[in-house]
Design goal:
The complex is a heterodimer of chains A (175) and B (344). Chain A is of the alpha/beta class. Chain A has one domain: 3-Layer(aba) Sandwich (Pyruvate-ferredoxin Oxidoreductase, domain 3), CATH 3.40.920. In chain A, 38% of the residues lie in helices and 25% in strands. Chain A has six helices and six strands, in the order E-H-E-E-E-H-E-E-H-H-H-H. Chain A has a six-stranded mixed β-sheet, with helices on both faces. In chain A, strand 4, helix 2 and strand 5 form a beta-alpha-beta unit. In chain A, helix 4 packs across helix 6. The model of chain A has no long low-confidence stretch (mean pLDDT 92). With 344 residues, chain B is α/β, with parallel strands linked by helices. Helices cover 41% and strands 20% of the residues of chain B. Chain B contains twelve helices and 14 strands. In chain B, the strands form three sheets. A seven-stranded mixed β-sheet of chain B has the order 3-2-4-5-7-6-12, with helices on both faces. In chain B, helix 4 links the parallel strand 4 and strand 5. In chain B, helix 3 packs parallel to helix 4, helix 9 crosses helix 12 and helix 10 crosses helix 11. Classes of the chains: A alpha/beta (175), B alpha/beta (344).
Chain lengths: 175, 344
């Protein structure tokens, strides 16, 4: 196993959180993990992305040029990163926000932002996307991902945790 | 051993706390802010001292003071901030004071940018400040080594009574990896009979870099150089990857070494015999090992995120015994595996 993942969107959409959740979920079973965020000048409305590599063997470069799994939360990220998908990549696109989605059999469209809004948790679109990913790629177990989500929102109100788990569940149901 | 997920910057912080760092003094700068934030939380939690100073210069001079008092102490910054600390580092070298200095490098010169870089190599390994001195320079290439080498830095600083630098970059500082920590670790602290910790019942100590007496300063320099010679004999650290049969040798440290390793894995699949020598101590530099290898390989390629700084030390070690080529990017850019493969 050697999986490289990219999560990209606009600042505030929770792509960095998504990366931390996935890295945390991998901690139990995956021998080697690297997580690398874009950092610094990104703010709400700017661009944000993070990369994760999961591997059986020691990871040489923590940064990939080609990705096996790509989650794209906005149009700018789609335009920028679609060319870095491997020929067999799983590409999940937030179709609520992205209007110009190329005709590509690797792309799975998820109406993530709308679903999150319908669930009364507009900031949970990232977890809807993660749910879809968990269904399509079983590198990480749903159980470990759920534990990582709970860990990420540790200390928050129960309703917040439940709302985020609901988004994650809904994403799995869709794909 | 429990695995925890941490950023490289946090890994340094955790290493410092575990190594018994008594006092941290710093001033914020990207891309090392997670470290300052970590220390602001964990130093008070462990009844230690955290001070966010009014400037980098103030911070390094606080380190001087705490070190003179016999405490384990550190400061951290990134490239432009590190330049400001050089006067203090030179004073500590002159006064033979142990301290740990962290530089999470970013692109330069000037304010540059906040992207990862290795362009402070010369500044780190050639002294940096004024006068004939060196600092031991440790170059981690993973979050685990950010932790391990920070612990080592405190021990080496005390052992040789001198500043020890952890030279990292924004990429390793920002990335997260699993690491294992030393559980219930108790640092081995050595006596500091020279420390300014109250002279009741003994002769007063003096920690001072001004030596105005006739011949006094040269004598002091001879003593310092003898110490540096001992370090060169005793403390060289490096890592090898697939060098036994290689005919092309890559030399790289830190982030560049990770990328070099990725390039080697690709080249090996194509049947090319490539290996990596990764200096862990940049000063003292593993020049004897590189000299030995230069007689066995067809060529050496140095890879850096700079215009070619360590390249000069590699060339000095090789003494013209084989060609030395270079792959590098500047200003916060990072070499790709592909650019290395093309050079192989």
């Amino acid at each position: 196993m050697n999986k490289s993942m990219l999560f990209a969107g606009t600042g505030g959409q929770g792509v960095v959180s998504l990366g931390k959740i996935v890295a945390t979920a991998a901690l139990k079973d995956v021998p080697y993990i690297t997580y690398y965020p874009s950092y610094g000048a990104e703010v709400r409305g700017g661009t944000a992305n993070c990369q994760i590599v999961l591997a059986e063997k020691e990871i040489a470069s923590p940064v990939s040029e080609v990705f096996d799994i790509i989650l794209l939360l906005n149009q700018a990220s789609l335009d920028k990163f679609i060319g870095q998908a491997s020929p067999t990549a799983t590409i999940i696109v937030n179709s609520t926000i992205c209007s110009k989605i190329p005709d590509d059999p690797r792309i799975i469209k998820i109406d993530a932002s709308k679903i999150a809004i319908d669930l009364n948790n507009p900031r949970g679109a990232n977890l809807v996307m993660l749910g879809a990913m968990a269904k399509l790629d079983t590198t990480l177990s749903v159980e470990n991902l759920e534990l990582a989500i709970k860990d990420k929102f540790k200390g928050k109100k129960d309703a917040v945790i439940a709302g985020n788990l609901q988004c994650f569940q809904k994403g799995q149901d869709l794909s | 051993m429990k695995r925890i997920l941490m950023t490289g910057n946090d890994g340094i912080g955790k290493g410092a706390v575990d190594a018994g760092c008594d006092c941290y003094f710093g001033y914020p700068i990207t891309p090392q802010n997670e470290l300052t934030a970590y220390m602001s939380l964990h130093m008070p939690m462990n009844d230690r001292v955290f001070i966010q100073a009014e400037s980098e210069i103030a911070a390094v001079n606080m380190v001087y003071g705490a070190s003179a008092a016999g405490k384990r102490t550190m400061t951290s910054s990134s490239s432009p901030g590190l330049s400001l600390k050089l006067e203090g580092i030179s004073y500590m070298a002159g006064s033979e004071l142990p301290a740990v200095i962290v530089n999470v490098q970013r692109g330069g010169p000037g304010l540059g940018n906040i992207a990862p870089s290795q362009a402070d190599y010369f500044q780190a390994v050639k002294g940096g400040g004024h006068g004939d001195y060196n600092s031991i320079v440790l170059a981690p290439n993973s979050v685990q080594e950010m932790y391990d080498l920070t612990v080592l830095a405190f021990d080496l600083a005390d052992k040789y009574r001198m500043p020890v630098m952890v030279l990292s970059d924004g990429r390793i500082g920002q990335m997260m990896e699993p690491m294992t920590v030393k559980e219930n670790y108790k640092p081995t602290l050595i006596d500091k009979p020279w420390a300014l910790n109250g002279c009741k019942g003994r002769k007063p100590n003096k920690v001072w870099s001004l030596k105005l007496g006739d011949g006094e300063l040269e004598e002091h320099n001879i003593k310092l150089q003898a110490k540096y010679k001992e370090i060169k004999n005793q403390e060289v650290l490096f890592d090898e990857y697939m060098i036994d049969d290689c005919d092309t040798l890559l030399v790289a440290y830190g982030t560049s070494a990770r990328i070099a390793r990725g390039a080697i894995d690709i080249a090996r699949k194509k049947g090319q015999k490539v290996g990596l020598l990764r200096p862990i101590t940049l000063w003292p530099f593993p020049k004897d090992k590189i000299e030995e290898l230069s007689t066995k390989v067809n060529k050496i390629i140095t890879i850096e995120m700079s215009a070619g700084q360590m390249l000069e030390d590699v060339q000095l070690a090789v003494k013209g015994q084989c060609p030395v080529e270079f792959v590098g990017r500047m200003g916060g850019a990072i070499p790709t595996e592909q650019s290395i493969i093309e050079k192989i």
